[in-house]
Here is the input.
Amino acid sequence: MAPSALTSNDYIDLPLQTTPPTPPPPVLDASSSDLDLLRPINHGLTEAKRLISQALECRISTIDHDTCDVGDEDAFFVADLGEVYRQHLRWKLNLGRVKPHYAVKCNPDPQVLRLLAELGTGFDCASKAEMEQVLQMGIDPARIIYAQPCKTKSHLRYAAQNGVRQLTFDNADELYKTKQLLPDAELYLRILTDDSASLCPLSLKFGASLDNTRDLLELAHALGLNVVGVAFHIGSGASDPKAFLKAVQDARVVFDQAADLGFAMHTLDVGGGFCSDASFEDMAAVLSSALDCYFPPHIRIIGEPGRFYVSSAFTLACHVIARRTVNDPTLGTSSYMLYLNDGVYGNFSSIIFDHQNPVPRILRAGDRFLYAAHSSGYETPNMVDYSIWGPTCDGIDCIAQACSFPEVIQTGDWMYFEDMGAYTKCSATRFNGFTDKHSVVYVSSDPSVRALLQLE
Ligand SMILES: Cc1ncc(COP(=O)(O)O)c(C=O)c1O
Here is the structure.
């Protein structure tokens, strides 16, 4: 089905259906009670497991390793779009003031983007290709922020030619570039943050310090450029809510500097950094109260969440292509090295680039389908010990150095890994001739998604 063209100048909050077919779908707004919002979340969890299990079993039951064509047995994802939808509800419940602009870099999956487009989010794009992917869905360029403080000139020209005007910057050269190529840009000054408590610090590379912000604003003013707001990012996979408080306070300082120079800043961009675990509610609470304390209601607040939306929505299935038995004659024990058909040069790129420790679980051993049957390979001590490796020739290609399962896993068995939606497929390579195009089976544990995307 062709994606629908959403052309509004602002962000629409579509009526979101929580349970089909009656009662009539509630409109998700500030007046919806917490209970109304949480009901579909709880409902979705068991339904999600059932659908994911079904999709995994259905797919792997069609694969015969002895006869299949090359690629038929490749690793694949199951994506639960209902989980993306529930994360959106969670965002709105906890950060109702912040309009999310999904960070496309995190996982540019086309169905995720379609769903988020229908839900009315904006998009954070960092390159020409990301802008193009979003614009080709019929999205109004006003819903895109080109959130890359150091832009390639041809990509900036593309933005100018296609109506993308919101840009971030953090240095003087970028202002001259903007003056040349997109003089009517709506600029956000990205400031430095304390990102020491994040998985992936970004401030080493991006962000103007408060020592420089006044000079940059003066230059922008002298060049006749329009600085409309401040942006920050407290680091991807952040864990210290106080980083948000400090960043909001610093942003306030820059808003005041800008006002002194005659700029009427109207938007604060609080970036990404939110995790999908229980820390989200704590982070959101600190951020919300900081925003309410330092920024009056007429200031528009946007965010650039990536990981938060997709991490828990994607499950990856891989199979064991080879196994090596390691005997320890001194202890009289045996353990196994398992080689999977995906590794750190593929979808487990998140181990290297995103500092993740994906948790291995058994999906199928022999003819037994074991989805959700055991605890993870990190929680079953004193059983059969394994290390898990990827398919390439490189020794760095290790997925798990030590784990254990109650089963003796054989070549041809399948494993699965949950929470594989963020910074995985998008940073996979084709090293050693392996594919970076792993397929995705979509399910939706929430009927609203099927309705929004007009599936079935
Ligand atoms: C500018 C910018 N915005 C948003 C994001 C998304 O961050 P996260 O996935 O932690 O929400 C990133 C990630 O690197 C980023 O660099």
User: Anything to note?
Assistant: The longest helix spans residues 34-61. Residues 103, 106, 124, 147, 202, 233, 236-237, 271-274, 304-308 surround pyridoxal-5'-phosphate (CB under 6 Å). The chain has two domains: 108-305, 312-443. The longest strand covers residues 314-328.
